[in-house]
Design brief:
Helix content is about 40%, strand content about 20%. The radius of gyration is 17 Å and the shape is globular. By secondary structure, it is an alpha/beta fold. It has one domain: TIM Barrel (Alpha-Beta Barrel), CATH 3.20.20.150. The strands form 2 sheets. Strands 1-2-3-4-5-6-7-10 form an 8-stranded parallel beta barrel, surrounded by 5 helices. The protein has a two-stranded antiparallel sheet with strand order 8-9. The longest helix has 20 residues. It has 10 helices and 10 strands.
């Protein structure tokens, strides 16, 4: 399986500065996903100087900038009541992410449906679809895709795509979020998820504690995840999302190097 190996820059504080690109290249990272930052912090990635530095450092070291992630929606909630302050903050964040992605030549934004944006009820699904439809319309005008990362099964994912009905909507998979909830059926449904997939997050961990183990050292069944991806012929990107600042990890770049080596042995 020929894939691109990347990391999420929210995985450790040292990855939140463009100066990390040289070390990432040294440990075998080929791509990055960038967090937009919080509304309270004024969405730091909207700074023209910071965007310029990320673009220059990524280009200098041959790293692909793959997505702008809007992690702030996990605090304010895509499922919040339309017109509410929380929903307005979500919409401001999405609009800022689209602007950043378009300005930096990044192909997609990522909207995670966890925390305050978790889809637990039919009402949540309806509001998520409304938010995604609005985001897709905004992003499509700028040539940007919108990736949704959630815990819906394959059938409900298909329903969500039908309701949103925009061809720039993508899934973004994190199989550990399923396996650490003992929902291994996701491995059998992969072809349906991968039909319009923007990429895959990879991490290990323990039940109730995702991202706290090096790949292969936890109970997320990472080996089975990668084998299932290989069976489908997946050739997209794999983005490491372990919490490298968690207690028990070694120096972050060494830990990243270990996880990159694990993936290379498994899939390359």
């Amino acid at each position: 399986m020929s894939v691109l190996l990347g990391v999420c820059n929210w995985a450790h504080p040292l990855l939140q500065s463009p100066s990390c690109c040289a070390k990432l290249k040294d440990v075998g990272i080929q791509a990055l996903q960038l967090d937009l930052g919080s509304s309270e912090g004024g969405f730091p990635l909207t700074s023209a100087e910071l965007r310029r530095r990320w673009r220059e450092e990524a280009d200098r070291h041959g790293l692909r900038l793959d997505a702008v992630a809007v992690l702030d929606v996990m605090k304010h909630g895509m499922v919040a009541e339309p017109g509410s302050e929380r929903r307005k903050t979500v919409e401001e964040a999405v609009a800022a992410a689209v602007d950043c992605a378009a300005g930096m030549g990044i192909p997609q934004i990522l909207l995670p449906s966890f925390g305050a944006s978790a889809i637990r009820t039919r009402d949540d699904l309806r509001e998520t679809a409304r938010c995604l439809r609005w985001a897709c319309a905004l992003a499509k005008r700028r040539g940007i895709a919108v990736a949704t990362e959630n815990l819906l099964d394959a059938g409900m994912t298909k329903t969500l795509f039908a309701v949103v009905s925009y061809d720039n909507l993508r899934t973004f998979l994190d199989l550990s979020n399923f396996t650490l909830r003992r929902r291994e059926k996701v491995l059998d449904e992969l072809p349906e998820y991968l039909a319009a997939c923007g990429g895959v997050h990879i991490k290990d961990g323990m039940y109730g504690k995702p991202g706290v183990r090096l790949l292969g050292d936890g109970v997320a069944q990472v080996e089975k995840q990668l084998a299932a991806l290989q069976r489908t012929g997946y050739t997209g990107a794999l983005f490491l999302e372990n919490a490298y600042a968690a207690q028990g990890f070694e120096e972050p770049f060494a830990a990243l190097g270990n996880d990159v080596a694990y993936l290379r042995r498994a899939v390359l």
